[in-house]
Amino acid sequence: MTSITVKKGPDGTRIDFGGIVDLKSMFKFENNDVNKPLIGTNLPFKLLSRGKVRDTYIIAPGVLLMVATDRISTFDVVLNQGIPGKGEVLNKISQFWLAEIERAGIIRTHSIPGKLIIEPKEVAMVLDGRSSIVSRKIPIMTECIARGYISGSAWKEYRKNGTVTGIKLPDGIIESGRLQHPIFTPSTKSQTGHDQNITFEQLTAEIGREKTSMLKEITLAVYEHAHNYALPRGIIIADTKLEFGINGSEQLVLIDELLTPDSSRFWPSDTYLPGGPQISYDKQYVRDYVESVGWNKSPDNIPVLPEDVIANTSKKYIQAFETLSGSIFRTL
Ligand SMILES: Nc1ncnc2c1ncn2[C@@H]1O[C@H](COP(=O)(O)OP(=O)(O)OP(=O)(O)O)[C@@H](O)[C@H]1O
Ligand SMILES: [Mg+2]
Questions:
Q1: What is the pTM of this model?
Q2: Does residue 255 sit within a domain?
Q3: Which has fewest Cβ within 10 Å: 33, 91, 155, 161?
Q4: Are both 182 and 212 inside the same structural domain?
């Protein structure tokens, strides 16, 4: 391969992968077919992290390239098939919210202004739409969770103790019920194993009162802004997880993916019925299918999704993007 260049110009950032590129050495497509969903990348940059869905590379000092693949996970296991359009939808939803939160003046984000131009065009065909470049920050190792409705682990704790991560809530809230005031329930960002809830006081002991209060205030402000934006459009954002980083001058900056169905609980508002669990906006078909075949949730025995489950899931992701952004997604 010829040499790669990353250049920042007046129109944006240009990544040129050089002359002729062997796509199959840089990308893994389902069934090894370049027209199928992208399920992995192997770009010639230093890998910062490979998550369940996104691959993040360091492409220049202080600059990250985040590539959202079409991988899908359910019950914490990544499936072998991808969902067409999913990576692009996730990236675009995140970009939409990052711009919206900056526009609303709530907090600065890691977005780098300008276009991302990728060359040559064979590589652009794969990376365009699903990739973002962002400014690298020092992450605060806390998942900042805001909850406006009570569900999942929060519901389990409330039912048992009347609290959520130690916060006492009023009696009589039902499962998936809306809270009178959204709450901030941070957890540790564990490198291995499961994240653990921590109380406001524990977080204060770690990072200080001022920073903890700011994280809480900003997390709730971002959540409320997004919730109030999405609700009249038919999506309930029940809860969300934010991450923050610190820049050179010690200021807090919003980083990572933002308000996507992967980092939040999205519920369709037309079928919202508190008193039980809600169907998830995006993964309902996949979850229903893997449950219907009696999958034991083991990674050694991953079910094969039928075409209609994949197509319906793809439609749901696209619908989420179109509903939130008011833009039309390209035809797949
Ligand atoms: N601007 C940034 N600067 C530095 N690190 C960042 C920035 N934005 C995101 N990160 C970090 O990059 C990593 C991205 O990981 P990613 O979300 O893909 O996988 P994961 O969190 O390990 O797993 P999951 O797939 O469950 O989300 C996270 O550790 C996040 O904190
Ligand atoms: Mg993550």
A1: 0.96
A2: yes
A3: 33
A4: yes
In CATH, what number is assigned to the domain containing residue 34?
3.30.200.20
Cβ count near 23 (within 10 Å): 12
pLDDT band at 2 (very low <50, low <70, confident <90, very high): low
| Smallest-distance ligand from the CA of 71 | 1
The whole-angstrom separation of Cα 48 and Cα 133 is: 13
| Closest-approaching ligand to the CA atom of 68 | 1
Neighbours of ion ligand 2 (CB under 5 A): 51
Element (H, E) at 241: strand 235-246
Give the pLDDT band of residue 65 (cuts 50, 70, 90): very high
Is 258 part of a structural domain of the chain? yes
Judge if the beta carbon of residue 166 lies within 6 A of ligand 1: no
Interval between CA 125 and ligand 2 midpoint (Å):
25
Is the distance from the beta carbon of residue 71 to the nearest atom of ligand 1 less than 6 Å?
no
CB neighbours of residue 228 within 10 Å:
11
Q: 105-117: per-residue pLDDT in tens?
A: 999 999 999 999 9
Instruction: Please tell me whether residues 104 and 18 are part of one structural domain.
Output: yes
What is the sign, positive or negative, of the torsion defined by CA atoms of 144, 132, 20, 331? positive
Residue 91 structural domain: 5-136
